[in-house]
Design a protein that fits this description.
alpha+beta; six-stranded mixed sheet; two-stranded antiparallel ribbon; 42% helix
Length: 388
């Protein structure tokens, strides 16, 4: 019936032109082979309006039995678009993070389809576990979600733990949009899409896995920043005790040196004498005295104090990258004493760059432009005053 309607509405003058033009993925060579396999009374120059019912039935049988033409490419479909899907989720749900993906066009029983998916974490009103939102030809499906292909794939076909996501505790939002010339609804109400079509099921799985892969990269960075902050907090916690101990040792050295200068005598402790082996090189007393004298002089001039030692320890933690996570997130830190590395009241001037979100618009709906910058991983197209 469909082929008969196409023949009646066709504007082509010959059956060969009809097969190669009005039908998708049928080349002129394949159309000629189909005509050759038909009855002798059907030739290439015959008008589509003159084809009878018997010949139409024979054409349909040959088209169904042939495996020499490619599947439809999906150019006739109008998907929702990753950009619109991402923007809508951010505006309505306001999640912590969202990732979108579009799978390559597929086909089942000759009908093309495109699957778009998005996975979000957090957001206002979000519940723990997996919440699935479904669209068919850009229309939301509200009922019978449990039997839908999107719900079953999200709950049983995706291994969330592999992407550092806890599907029982995290607030996961799964959004799946399917567009097709013939959506395979199940039931009389057309409220869900069954999972018995393997092509659609695999396409939904690939799209969700692509989203999860993007989230895993983001979550790995977020966890690394969190570990850095925890490591810094643990180190900063012991800075007062460590600085107090170091200053106490230095002050003891100063007092011992003063006792020596006042006529007292000092010697190594018994443990140090027993612990020093015969092969241990003994530094000259002049080197030791010079270093001790320099430290004592700084202690007497208040160049070395407990607060300055605390400031230097904090600066050492910062210089070794323990707070890179805070710098990356746009927050600056400063020592508690208000002094920089030199201990003279100068602050460390570190410029902080706050990351801004970047939205990349797909090129499939934009006009052709000769100024594209092409790369194996992407295509960059500059434009001005272009309405998206």
């Amino acid at each position: 019936l469909l082929v008969q309607q196409l023949l009646e509405r066709s504007k082509c003058k010959t059956i060969l032109k009809f097969l190669s033009t009005d039908l998708s993925s049928v080349t002129p060579a394949l159309a000629k082979r189909i005509i050759d396999e038909l009855d002798d009374d059907l030739d290439e120059s015959m008008s589509p309006a003159d084809v009878n019912d018997k010949q139409i039935t024979r054409i349909v049988q040959l088209l169904r039995g042939s495996d020499q033409f490619k599947s439809p490419d999906g150019s006739c479909l109008s998907p929702l678009g990753e950009y619109n899907l991402n923007l809508g989720i951010r505006k309505v749900i306001e999640p912590e993070v969202v990732a979108t993906a579009r799978d390559r066009p597929g086909a089942y029983e000759g009908h093309p389809f495109i699957v778009e998916a998005a996975v979000s974490l957090g957001g206002k009103g979000a519940k723990e576990g997996i919440t699935v939102v479904r669209f068919a030809n850009r229309i939301p499906l509200l009922f019978e979600a449990g039997a839908d292909v999107a719900t079953r794939v999200a709950q049983s076909k995706i291994k969330w733990s592999s992407y550092k996501i806890d599907h029982k505790r995290d607030k996961i939002g799964v959004f799946v949009s399917i567009v097709s010339t013939k959506v395979p609804f199940k039931g009389t109400g057309k409220e869900y899409i069954g999972d018995d079509i393997t092509e659609i099921q695999l396409s939904v799985k690939r799209a969700l896995q692509s989203c999860c892969q993007q989230l895993r990269t983001h979550l790995a960075k977020r966890n690394a920043l969190r570990d850095q902050r925890e490591r810094r907090s643990r180190l900063v916690k012991y800075i007062p005790d460590v600085s107090r101990s170091i200053f106490g040792i230095l002050d003891t050295m100063r007092k011992r040196k003063l006792d020596e200068m006042n006529g007292g005598s000092t010697s190594l402790s018994p443990k140090k004498r027993l612990g020093r082996s015969q092969n241990t090189p003994i530094r000259s007393e002049d080197d030791v005295d010079k270093k001790n004298a320099g430290i004592i002089e700084k202690l007497e001039k208040d160049i070395i104090t407990e607060k300055i030692i605390e400031s230097h320890l904090l600066d050492a933690i910062e210089s070794h990258g323990a707070i890179d996570g805070q710098s990356a997130s746009g927050t600056g830190t400063e020592s508690s004493s208000g002094k920089g590395r030199f201990g003279d009241g100068r602050r460390n001037n570190t410029s902080v760059v706050v990351a801004q979100p970047l939205f990349l618009s797909p090129l499939y709906h934009l006009p052709d432009y000769g100024g594209d910058v092409r790369h194996p991983l992407f295509t960059f197209r500059p434009f001005k005053n272009l309405s998206l």
